[in-house]
Design a protein that fits this description.
Structural class: alpha/beta
Strand order of the largest sheet: 3-2-1-4-5-6-7-8
GO molecular function, one term: oxidoreductase activity, acting on the CH-OH group of donors, NAD or NADP as acceptor
Helix content: 25-40%
Family: Belongs to the short-chain dehydrogenases/reductases (SDR) family.
CATH class: Alpha Beta
Radius of gyration: 21 Å
Keywords: NADP, Oxidoreductase
Organism: Venturia inaequalis
Protein name: NAD(P)-binding protein
């Protein structure tokens, strides 16, 4: 098996001036709030025209409207990412009729498996009803579909035809590398006890990322630049989904980040043409780091272990509490089947 193409690790200790995204067109799914909103705002402020592909019309329109009021370029498209036709419509909704940056961010929270196992719903014959597939549909399948659609659109609509030429091969501005930035999670690397739907989906996103960064350089056609594929892997991030868990996490020494931390890393990746095939862990307090998810980095294991020893995940405190019987597994999960907002 060929070694996937990866550039050297990102050095976050050095200053970096991102290139302007003026003239670029981006689409961010699930950008009506949280991480997606912060990413969309950052891209728009950097000059990109951003399509906010968001199912919640009120939230999506509000984000787009506020950006336009501030003088930036943004639009909302109501998008159910689990529907292929909605995704196609969102991509073709681009006012420039071309897409340069795709960020499949949309995701939903997951319930732990234990309540379903202890109180499994049954049909009239006493057989179990199937568990919800929403988390897998949104957090994995929709990401896969969005990524494949991105490649198709990148290939079909490479750039804007020049208004001064009849040739469709002449572009304004000249074509540059298209980009996909996946939104994985620390759950793409670390165990997620009791929540297999979320952990499985996020491991799957990492699998898609690792497979797609190995695409042939000429996947978009001979003579064209390839697709830059990277991934961010947020740890615990303050959001509407995780708000109730933040005090619990911080008492255990977990470094909780913000959606802005994620947006900052995305800008670092997007604005640096020298970054390809990298996965970045996003933590608060400036603690983000390149996971070195490649052969030389032992597929991210070395960096994850080092971060764990630094205590940023709260592992040591949690282990000690569980060893003493002061903390049980169910304490790490929501009560009464309440949805847990996981971004780890």
């Amino acid at each position: 098996m060929a070694t996937p193409k990866c550039t050297p690790r990102i050095d976050f200790s050095t200053e970096f001036g991102a290139e302007s995204l003026e003239g670029k067109s981006a689409i961010v799914t699930g950008a009506g709030g949280g991480i997606g909103e912060s990413i969309a705002r950052a891209l728009a402020r950097a000059g990109a025209y951003v399509t906010i592909a968001e199912l919640n019309e009120e939230n999506g329109k509000a984000v787009a409207r506020s950006l336009r009021e501030d003088g930036f370029k943004a639009q909302h498209h109501k998008t159910d990412v689990t529907k292929w036709t909605d995704l196609v419509s969102a991509f073709t909704f681009s006012p420039t009729k071309t897409i340069d940056i795709v960020i499949p961010n949309a995701g939903v929270a997951s319930n732990p498996l234990i309540p379903w196992l202890t109180n499994t719903p049954e049909d009239a014959t006493g057989n179990p009803l199937p568990p919800s597939q929403a988390v897998v549909d949104v957090n994995f399948t929709a990401v896969y579909n969005t990524a494949l659609l991105a490649i198709y659109m990148f290939k079909k609509y490479p750039c804007l035809p020049s208004p001064t030429s009849d040739s469709t091969s002449t572009c304004t501005p000249p074509p540059s590398a298209k980009q996909i930035i996946f939104v994985g999670s620390m759950a793409s690397y670390r165990d997620m006890p009791g929540i297999p739907s979320y952990g499985g989906a996020k491991f799957g996103v990492r699998g898609i990322f690792k497979a797609m960064r190995g695409l042939a350089p000429d996947v978009l056609g001979e003579g064209r630049e390839g697709v830059r594929v990277n991934m961010i892997a947020p740890s615990w991030i303050r959001s509407g989904m995780t708000g109730g868990l933040v005090p619990f996490l911080e008492r255990r020494g977990v470094v909780v980040g913000s959606p802005g931390d994620c947006a900052g890393v995305v800008l670092r990746i997007v604005g640096d043409a020298g970054v390809y095939g990298r996965a970045v862990a996003v933590l608060g307090n400036g603690g983000s780091f390149d996971l070195c998810d490649d052969y030389d980095g032992l597929e991210g294991t070395r960096e994850i272990l080092a971060a764990s020893k630094r205590g940023v995940f709260g592992d040591q405190t949690t282990r000690e509490e569980r060893k003493k019987g002061e903390l049980k597994l169910e304490d790490l999960l929501p009560n009464d089947g309440e949805e847990i907002g996981v971004a780890i």
